[in-house]
């Protein structure tokens, strides 16, 4: 079977084509994802910069208050107004060290509360204040005390105790637990609580830090908008790619598959005449027309080669190739028509001696004359003569009787001997002669198990018997009911 190897290459091309489409889709989604990261990073950076701008005045105020451990300044109306000036600031907490003492400075502000409160107060601070109040009350009950001063200190102590209790309650109620922000990363977006946490260093000598919490709801809404927009773009890109695949499948891949199927057939069966691709005006149509032209050229070459291989160039008889291709059909045809099959193996007697004595050019000339003699024995279109090689010929006959087959064999021997071609190397005859092994078989006796190879073996044995009988002879074998009957 002769096939082009283009089919397998086209299959590989299909895989590469789909791979390229998948690669394009992957690139689209990758670009969308990178755009999302870039856009989102820009929005976060902008939000952080705004938060820093809002926090700078607060940092200045808090740093000054932390330096002198002043809790009064942070509770003044102008300070509270500063804290509340940014709608997005929800809360902040301060941890610092006084520049003039080892005391810790710590407080927080809550928009929900609307006030600032200390966050470092403990039960011991409360107890100490209560003890101080009790001491003032005892002094106030002592004769000769300065009642005005003691009452002032007592009222102030009670106010301070009330403030301590309120601040401790506010700390418990309004101070959230923040994620720890490292020095490397000075902000954190808490998406679960919709908060942007910003850490700033204080500017007093002892140092400290303030952590501010801003409402991140608008920022997260922007994130959702970005995600939705990019998802829409990616979906459109995916849909476009899908439509491109469908279009390419119908317009390119399917026709390529049809071409591959055609090219995978035996080259003699390739025919693009009825294929719609051959009428296309694009590059694929050019390819199909080129392939069709190439296939037709190859088919013509194959026909020419088969013609040449079917004819023996020296004698003009059928070649061994042609014999091998027709022998099975010849038996089947004879069986169907119920005629007699005649199988003749003809061999020139002592032909090697003829070549040795007269030379090969003369031997070739004699083979051509012998071929013409054998060809002359063919009376019907169904008959055939073939040169198997050297000086051996085969004649296939379909006749009405076995006698017709034997008569043709006798005629062949007589015609060749009548040419009177000198052959001194053929003892007893001194001219060129022919020996024939003949098999005669009636069609009804040729069942499906009988092959031409079996018949050839019988005829070959008959030929040897003819040679043994003195040459220029015929030996006939009749095939009847699955058995051979030798007729000398």
Automatic annotation (TrEMBL):
Signal sequence range: none
E.C. no: 2.7.7.65
Lineage: Bacteria, Pseudomonadati, Pseudomonadota, Gammaproteobacteria, Alteromonadales
Protein name as it appears in the record: diguanylate cyclase
One Pfam family it belongs to: GGDEF
Example of a GO MF term: diguanylate cyclase activity
Protein's organism: Alginatibacterium sediminis
Domain of life, per lineage: Bacteria
Domain (GGDEF): residue spans on this chain: 339-479
Transmembrane segments: 12-33
InterPro entries in UniProt: Diguanylate_Cyclase, GGDEF_dom, Nucleotide_cyclase, Rev_trsase/Diguanyl_cyclase
Keyword Acyltransferase in annotation: no
A Gene Ontology BP annotation from the UniProt entry: negative regulation of bacterial-type flagellum-dependent cell motility
Annotated catalysed reactions: 2 GTP = 3',3'-c-di-GMP + 2 diphosphate
Any one GO cellular component localisation term in the record: plasma membrane
Keyword tags: Membrane, Transmembrane, Transmembrane helix
PANTHER family listed in its UniProt record: DIGUANYLATE CYCLASE DGCM-RELATED, REGULATORY COMPONENTS OF SENSORY TRANSDUCTION SYSTEM
């Amino acid at each position: 079977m002769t096939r082009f190897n283009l089919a397998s290459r086209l299959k590989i091309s299909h895989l590469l084509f789909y791979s390229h489409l998948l690669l394009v889709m992957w690139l689209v989604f990758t670009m969308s994802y990178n755009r999302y990261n870039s856009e989102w990073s820009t929005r976060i950076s902008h939000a952080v910069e705004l938060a820093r701008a809002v926090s700078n005045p607060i940092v200045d105020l808090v740093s000054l208050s932390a330096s002198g451990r002043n809790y009064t300044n942070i509770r003044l109306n102008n300070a509270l107004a500063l804290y509340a000036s940014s709608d997005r600031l929800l809360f902040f907490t301060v941890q610092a060290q006084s520049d003039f003492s080892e005391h810790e400075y710590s407080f927080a502000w809550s928009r929900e509360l609307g006030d600032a409160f200390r966050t470092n107060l403990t039960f011991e601070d409360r107890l100490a204040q209560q003890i101080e109040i009790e001491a003032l009350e005892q002094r106030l009950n002592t004769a000769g005390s300065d009642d005005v001063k003691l009452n002032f200190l007592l009222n102030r102590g009670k106010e301070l105790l009330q403030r301590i209790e309120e601040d401790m309650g506010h700390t418990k109620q309004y101070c959230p637990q923040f994620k720890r922000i490292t020095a490397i990363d000075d902000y954190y977006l808490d998406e679960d609580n919709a908060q942007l946490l910003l850490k700033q260093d204080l500017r007093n000598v002892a140092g400290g830090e303030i952590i501010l919490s801003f409402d991140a709801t608008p920022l997260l809404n922007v994130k959702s908008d970005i995600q939705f927009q990019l998802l829409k773009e990616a979906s459109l890109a995916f849909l476009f790619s899908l439509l491109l695949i469908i279009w390419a499948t119908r317009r390119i891949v399917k026709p390529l598959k049809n071409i591959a199927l055609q090219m995978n057939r035996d080259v003699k069966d390739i025919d693009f005449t009825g294929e719609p691709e051959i009428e296309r005006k694009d590059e694929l149509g050019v390819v199909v027309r080129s392939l069709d032209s190439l296939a037709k050229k190859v088919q013509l070459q194959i026909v020419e080669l088969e013609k040449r291989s079917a004819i023996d160039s020296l004698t003009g008889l059928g070649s061994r190739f042609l014999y091998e291709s027709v022998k099975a059909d010849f038996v089947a045809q004879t069986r169907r028509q119920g005629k007699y099959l005649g199988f003749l193996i003809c061999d020139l007697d002592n032909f090697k001696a003829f070549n040795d004595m007269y030379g090969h050019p003369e031997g070739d000339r004699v083979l051509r004359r012998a071929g013409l003699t054998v060809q002359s024995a063919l009376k019907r279109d169904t008959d055939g003569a073939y040169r198997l090689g050297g000086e051996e010929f085969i004649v296939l006959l379909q006749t009405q009787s076995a006698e017709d087959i034997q008569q043709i064999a006798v005629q062949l021997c007589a015609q060749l001997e009548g040419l009177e071609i000198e052959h001194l190397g053929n003892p007893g005859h001194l001219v060129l002669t022919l020996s024939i092994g003949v098999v005669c078989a009636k069609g009804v006796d040729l069942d499906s198990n009988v092959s031409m190879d079996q018949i050839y073996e019988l005829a070959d044995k008959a030929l040897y018997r003819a040679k043994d009988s003195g040459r220029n002879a015929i030996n006939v074998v009749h095939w009847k009911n699955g058995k051979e009957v030798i007729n000398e």
